[in-house]
Amino acid sequence: MNLTTARKAPRKTAARPAAVPKSWDVPTEWVDDFLRGNGLDPLPRGTDGAWEAAFVRRLMQRMHAHFRGIREAGGSPATSLGDPEKLADWVVAAAPLEPSPLEELVGPFYDTAGLRAWLGVSRQAVLERVKTHTLLGMQTGDRTWVYPAWQFRKTGNGETIPHLAEVLRILAKAIDDPWTWALWLQAPDEDLDGMTSAQWLESGRDPAPVLAEARADAARWAA
Questions:
Q1: Contact status, residue 152 vs residue 182, Cβ threshold 8 Å
Q2: Is the pTM of this model over 0.85?
Q3: Quick check: 223 and 176 in contact, CB under 8 A?
Q4: What would the pLDDT profile of 79-113 be if each residue is shown by its tens digit?
Q5: Distance CA 57, CA 27 (A)
């Protein structure tokens, strides 16, 4: 990977992770009781425990609403969704990977199995999208494919942020290094009101400034 080239982009600085909330408005005791009742370790104390309790509650709320919708439509969750163990595995597989040395800059990531499960497509379909620059994927040192989670819109339907493919194709003409592209997209830019290019595109703002900078930086890298 090439981390030096991305820093040549003008007016961009090293990306910093967003601040993590220190607490969530969710009692942790009921999650602790459930975990202990099933022979599992209790929640960790502090921020991680509060985060996990918040996630578990929200996941249960959303899954319960989904199951209710199936029943109201005349179906049965047990029939349409199958083995609960496999469904649980699917939910876990669709979550981004654990932190890695580069997560602070361009993570978190999905792996191929998780992305396939979420999008409902084959491995070949995922890699074809990477090849055609409609999806940003990078390989780690051990040749594992990872895919930044921030390239997907917050709608949760698997749609990528607007104009991502245009930006990737512009940058790819200058340098064949997806890690550099990811760093470029995640670098805060004063000309974009301090937002990263990815945030700017996700917000639905005029893509012209991002595309113009991509062309200018690509020309500079290729010179």
A1: no
A2: no
A3: no
A4: 887 888 877 776 776 666 555 556 667 878 889 98
A5: 10
* 107 & 85 share domain: no
The rounded distance, in Å, linking the Cα atoms of 41 and 112 is 29
Sheet with 109-111, edge to edge strand ranges = 109-111, 145-148, 138-139
Contact 136, 182 (CB under 8 A): yes
Show the domain range for 186: 5-13+98-222
Task: Enter the tokens of residue 40.
Answer: 């599992």
Look at residue 24 and tell me if it is in a domain: no
Rounded to whole angstroms, the Cα distance separating 75 from 67 reads 9
Assigned token pair, 73: 């439509």
Helix (H, G, I), strand (E, B) or coil at 211: helix
Stretch (H or E) spanning 209: helix 208-222
Strands of 26-123, DSSP E: 109-111
